[in-house]
Amino acid sequence: MELKAMILGHFLVISLALNAGLLYRDYCNNGKHKSVEFFSFKTECKNESLVTKRDTHVAGRFPFESSSSKVVDGVIDLDHGDPTMYERYWQQMGDKTTVVIPGWKFVSYFSDRRSLCWFLEPELASSIIRLHKLVGNAVTENRYIVVGTGSTQLFQAVLYALSPSNASEPIDVLCAAPFYSSYPLITEFLKSGLYKWGGDAHKFRQNKPYIELVTSPNNPDGLSRQAVVDQDQGMLIHDLAYYWPQYTPISYAADHNIMLFTVSKTTGHAGTRLGWALIKDEEIAKKMTEFIMLSTIGVSKESQLRAAKILQVVSDTHEYRTNQDFREGDSFFEHSYYLMAKRWKQLRNAVNQSKIFSLPHFPSAKCTFNGHTFATQPAFAWLKCEGEIYDCEKFLREHKIWTRSGKHFGDSTKYVRVSVLPRDEEFQQFTDRLRSII
């Protein structure tokens, strides 16, 4: 009977997950209209002369395109942030990131019994520290590294770690709008008695404990962020998934108590499903490790070893760029920086020509890593429909462009989030189509 109950329980969980996914998709596609006052942003493209010089070089270095880069039935799907833009670079790098794992390896649950995060592979830990020191985007000294199955699991783990176990009510989880659309869904998914989604941090007025998420650069609008609520009872989580030099100038080494990163946005390997957290407080790191242990008994060692190799090669392309193993243009962040700059120039030109859309304006700053002075060039475009178009997602769907409505980010339906990370062919077709909408 216990076995039967367990099997039925598993089927129930799978059924709920599938139904939740279908309901969420329906919800995304059928929202009510919501009108607000509209305003314009400046759309000057920064660094145009510098980008133009490198356009030919970027195209020439990676001449081939993946055969899977196709627009099905004329639909351009830019709803999800699938980072397939990076495929061509890693194809060009050949076998440099190939990992061969013998069958006897990784039989044990344990990676390092002496480590607080006992399932963290030492090779991954060292490659994470090396990369952060190279880029200068985060302090790693006197930190505990906790690895998770993507930053999604780490987010759940840190909510568990920060929530008081003896509170009379769930603690509020806040984020300033527009916020990442999955934050509310992930927070509410388990219906936990420890925490609950509290909404827009700008609207929080209660004098009680809270957890605030600070995403910088922000998903979806790309802006740099700081905490909004200023109260003694608050605890902060800094999601720094996009704080890398292809997306934004590195201006300081982040030194926060809790910092989340993910391989998917660092190198484009979303399918590896790996993220890491840099934690100051030992007790928080212990509770996060406990959550991951109880939910998945650790993290795949195969994924960790592959991620470690990829991060090592990224560092190698910069530290050993004069080595015969690497050629001009192989430096990962340099190549990715120019590719993002090219795409944002292309997108701004299409938006300016259409005259019915607008994009945010980002201030320029000098990057301490690469020495370039440039404006943020985010992984997502926060596109606004001007005039009397009040449902931008619906309007673009009529032109077979799938995006994600601003309503899912706690903002107006006049906005949509658009991925800037698809394959070249898709992005070219998107900007061509956008340009033709007059």
In percent terms, what proportion of residues is strand? 5-15%
Give the overall silhouette.
globular
Gyration radius, to the nearest Å? 22 Å
According to DSSP, the number of beta strands is 15
- Enumerate how many helices there are, as a single number: 12
Order of helices and strands: HHEHHEHEHEEEEHEHHHEEEEHEEEH
Overall SS class: alpha/beta
Described by strand count, sense and barrel closure, the largest sheet is: 7 strands, mixed
What would the average pLDDT be, to the nearest integer?
87
Estimate the helix proportion, in percent.
Answer: 25-40%
What gap, in angstroms, lies between the N and C termini? Answer: 65 Å
Strand order across the biggest sheet?
2-8-7-6-5-3-4
Which consecutive residue ranges, at least 5 long each, have pLDDT under 50? 1-8, 10-69
Written overview of the protein:
This protein is of the alpha/beta class and 438 residues long. The protein is built from twelve helices and 15 strands. The strands form four sheets. A seven-stranded mixed sheet has the order 2-8-7-6-5-3-4. A four-stranded antiparallel sheet has the order 9-12-15-14. Strands 1-13 form a two-stranded parallel sheet. β3 (171-175), α6 and β4 form a beta-alpha-beta unit. α4 packs parallel to α9.
